[in-house]
Amino acid sequence: MRYLLLLAFGMGCSGGDGPDDPVVTGAPTSGFPSFYGEPPKNLWIISIDTTRRDLMERYGGPPGLMPFLDQLAAEGVALDQHVSCSNWTMASVLCAQTGQDGLDLGFVPRLQENTKGPIPDTAHGLAYWLREAGYYTVLSSGNSWFSREWNMDLGFTFGYPANTGNATSLFTYGLTPLLAARVQGVADRWYYHLHLVEPHAPYNPPDQYLGGLAALPPYPIDLSVKEDHYDIKKDWPDMPPEEQALLEKHLRVRYQAELRYMDDQIRAFFEQADALGLLDDTLVVVWSDHGEEFWEHGDQTHAYSLHSGENDAIAFFWAKNIVPAQWTEPTSHIDIAPTILTALGLPIPEEVTGLPAGTAPADRPLFGLAVSKEGTVQSVRTPTRKLIYTWTGGGKEFHWIDSDPGEWVNKYDPEDPEVLALWDLLLPKVEAAEVLIPEYRPANPGP
Predict the structure, then answer these.
(1) Among 122, 134, 35, which residue's Cα sits nearest to residue 76?
(2) Considering Cα of 17, then 314, then 273, then 126, what sign does the dihedral take?
(3) Average pLDDT over residues 75-81
(4) Taking the model in full, what pTM does it have?
(5) Is the pLDDT of residue 21 over 50?
(6) Residue 20's pLDDT band (boundaries 50, 70, 90)?
(7) Measuring CA to CA, which residue among 224, 339, 206 is closest to residue 264?
(8) 13-204+249-364 maps to CATH 3.30.420.40
(9) In terms of Cα–Cα distance, which of 222, 426, 7, 131 is closest to 447?
(10) Please, are residues 317 and 33 in contact by the beta-carbon 8 Å criterion?
(11) 284-309 per-position pLDDT tens digit
(12) What stretch(es) of the chain map to CATH 3.40.720.10?
């Protein structure tokens, strides 16, 4: 494998391993990501549901758990301090597609009410902007929150109804109309978005990936059934410690097996797409919508809190001629769309509030908002500190995320100058959210 040197601009950017591919020619383009020769003209996004960033080996996870994703991140441009804007799919995807958070968009999805909308008529996203620029756009999603059912297609030319099949089926569903459109000459430039529901609960991969269960005593409930999985986790607080420990081990083994299965399927996608010539002039973007908890903060699955297990996310870019690099300053889902548009040489619409990666001030605050399983929660973070505020009950947490990335220790002190500074940033967001979701009321906002 060849090694390339990228002379970074600004803070936080450094070189990485280059792809072992002979197509890398020409001088690097300007910008970030940058490319050898002309930038790719096509776009393939693979967004992955419910994937914990800290389980990639790149971020301290087990070696060999997701080797192909680790390889792509090393060969491409990785955003190494990336966070979602929320903790569940509809809210997170909306940010990534529109380049705005819900407050800027004027719409806050509410999981508890199964909110269909109204997503503002003025809301546009990547699919709309790329279609306006002449792209043929295809969506194949395994999660109904990211589909026409909830008005979330936001401009795709072709979109299958959300399908709960495995990733391989979803890949084929989207690939078929894309190939047909190319043959018909209507997809000279294309954007294919593949949203994988795996590894979402109930963590039910093929049996060959579940060998780790053989080392554990059996668990009496069938955790491969979604209803049983969700029911048993509700019983957690009343379980004896030994049953809690066994349940957690079973769920972690099953979850990691899902990650291995997902990684193998993505590797197969790449081999098939490359054999069809679809990777020769294509920017591939991989991101996760949110993470998953395993009782680190009292809950299991997601859509509960904005702690790192649920809020940290994966984001990286890959192309055959990309200049490998990493960006180590914080980025958010609202930055994905403007970074892609810039990489493709397209203008960023005025309504976008995210920034292309590499252009934001290092100390820019990033905000989170979720109206999910336990009401409304908001957060603000800087590169080293994070404030989490839960509307119900007025819960407040302050974490030193530079030394405590798992957010185990709550250092909240209402007289701490750092806490007060973060409240100055967060309170206007709380007030704006209250206007948009008047059915909720924040308890004791402020220090």
Answers:
(1) 35
(2) negative
(3) 96
(4) 0.93
(5) no
(6) very low
(7) 206
(8) no
(9) 426
(10) yes
(11) 999 999 999 999 999 999 999 999 99
(12) 13-204+249-364
